[in-house]
Amino acid sequence: MNCLVLFDFDGTLTARDSFIAFIRATNSPLKFYSGFILLSPVLILYKFGIIPNWKAKQAVIRYFYGGMKADKFFALSKDFSEKHILKLVKESAMLKLREHINGGHQVVIVTASLEPYMEAWCKTIGVELIATRLEVAEGKITGDYSGGNCYGIEKANRIRGKYSLSSFEKIIAYGDSRGDEEMLELADEKHYRVF
């Protein structure tokens, strides 16, 4: 069967948030903890729904990586991908993902996680990727997005922009949060918090 399978990453395939794990792995403990203390007003505003997800996340990216040389950032991302991502992934979720791959389905990870550290891992396991891209200017990470944060309606927009959904006999989607609702609505078969 010509089937498109869409997997969210954080919370669906993983037991914990990969973005926080990435920040922890690529910064000193001092910078990690002091950064989140300094950013706590922004995070509290997000927690209470006063500012949106994308804005809070952007503030975090700007603090930790804004102005960093892109080559250094991509090297850190590759290292994180190789050494840490597999430790985050739930075994039950990976079994289901591999079942879809072995069934000849077109499998796509659709995630708000950052494209640079997701890309190498997705290539290794043989799946496609739609993720949050970061802007690079004059060889440096600006801290801004290149396009929107891949969350909520942006997930659905990016999927529709990349695939002709009507060409698939069946669409299956897996998600676990509010940010996956629009993606799940695209699917014939929806799975919510199943792992």
Secondary structure elements and pairings:
Blueprint: E1 3-7, H1 18-25, H2 29-38, H3 40-47, H4 53-65, H5 70-83, H6 85-88, H7 91-102, E2 106-114, H8 115-125, E3 128-132, E4 134-137, E5 140-145, H9 153-162, E6 170-175, H10 181-185, E7 189-192
Helix pairs in contact: 3-4, 5-8
How would you describe the overall organization of this protein?
- The chain is of the alpha/beta class.
- The chain is built from ten helices and seven strands.
- It has helices at 18-25, 29-38, 40-47, 53-65, 70-83, 85-88, 91-102, 115-125, 153-162, 181-185; strands at 3-7, 106-114, 128-132, 134-137, 140-145, 170-175, 189-192.
- The strands form two sheets. The protein has a five-stranded parallel sheet, sandwiched between helices. Strands 4-5 form a two-stranded antiparallel sheet.
- Strand 4 (134-137) and strand 5 form a beta hairpin.
- The radius of gyration is 17 Å and the shape is globular.
